[in-house]
Amino acid sequence: MLPQIGKVDRASFDRIIFPRLGKADKTVLIGPQHGVDAAVIELPDKSVMVIAEDPTFGMPVLMPHFGWAIVHICASDIAVLGVKPQYMTICLMLPPGTSDTVLEGIWKEVHEECEKLGIAIVGGHTGIYPGIGYPLNGGCTVIGLGSKEQITSPSYAKVGDRVIMTKGPAIEATGILALQSEKALVKKFGRDIVEKGKKYFFEMTVVKDALTAAPYAHAMHDATEGGLLNGVYEIAAASKLGVTIHEDKIVSTPEIEAICSYFQIDPLISVSEGTLVATAAPEKTPALLKALKKEGISAWDIGEITAKDRVFIRKNGKKEELKPVAVDPFWAAYFSTLETKNE
User: Fold this and answer.
1) Are 110 and 137 in a shared domain?
2) pLDDT digits over 210-229, tens only?
3) Are residues 132 and 236 in the same domain?
4) With contact defined as beta carbons under 8 Å apart, do 219 and 279 qualify?
5) Domain match, 183 and 235 both
6) What is the C-alpha to C-alpha distance for residues 34 and 148, in angstroms, rounded to an integer?
7) How many helices (H) and strands (E) would you count in the chain?
8) What angle do CA 233, 238, 244 make, to 5 degrees?
9) Are residues 237 and 104 in the same domain?
10) For position 78, which CATH number holds?
11) Is a pLDDT exceeding 80 seen at residue 299?
């Protein structure tokens, strides 16, 4: 049985998708893997092409800045492999009745963000289709070119590496829920907390984080669905290694804690586009943290890559097995806000 919402589960991928990947090709250096954000293809001159594709769900709350979200969410998948995003194609699908001003607003923002990041839009498709409630990025493909030595795949972690987290947990969940349920949250927590929470929307990118950390990192990953703990798990699993993470080293903020508590969701396993998880050798970790700080990006050392066991140590000292997150609690919280608005 497939999940009712969100990414297809690991077991279904293993059973249905991974055994059927078309023609085998030796130029594919990194192909589809759990927890790996992009593919790496060797080119004839021995350089590499990094390529990734992502949809962007047309949530009503995203509409004022849908173009920004498309570009940064998709470009982040290239940046986490240590390569600068360079080219983009996009499939933009619109519901019947969409005005040209809506399309113009989305496209203007896509263009402006691509200009800022140095990305050329080289193709795609734009059309109007029934059965779509809101504008939808049906698939945005981003490509970067670089060398094999630059690659920081989630599968490249090494035993002894320190595990680094940027910004904090539940970045995407906090930003979207703060915008979506602003009135109810202000009533509960006051305006200051909610305004701080809303700002997390524009933290839903790891392009700057990843390109800053890349010279020092072995592996990097964007903590999307399943949040921080799932992102850490996916790096360990992709690298076929263990990991130990300490809850007391995971720094959060009052606004993250307040908004997640209101919706009764665990911030450590809630969608966190914008949180970079990186691993680096102990001797390079101070320089990595210093480089991020110089760019105004908060970051913390939260654990270590180990040889086998995957362990999460709670604040009370209790050790738990770190497992993949089956269902991200954000989705139920998000759709509950839509139901409330429709009452």
Assistant:
1) yes
2) 999 999 999 999 999 999 99
3) no
4) yes
5) yes
6) 21
7) 11, 13
8) 35
9) no
10) 3.30.1330.10
11) yes
Residue with tokens 């915008």: 179
Tokens for 112? 């402006």
CA distance 318 to 246: 10
pLDDT tier at 343, thresholds 50, 70, 90: very low
Question: Is 80 part of any domain?
Answer: yes
334 touches 62 (CB < 8 A) = no
Q: Which two tokens stand for residue 150?
A: 């630059």
Output phi, psi for 304, to 5 deg: -145, 140
How deeply is 186 buried, as exposed, middle or buried, from its count of CB atoms within 10 A (0-12, 13-18, 19+)?
middle
Q: Which of 22, 280, 269 is nearest to 170 (CA)?
A: 269
Q: Within 13 Å of residue 173, how many CA atoms lie on the same side as its CB?
A: 35
Print the domain residue range for 290.
154-342
Transcribe 172-227 into DSSP letters: HHHHHHHHHTHHHHHHHH-HHHHHHHHGGGGG---HHHHHHHTTT-SEEEE--TTH
pLDDT at 96 (0 to 100):
95
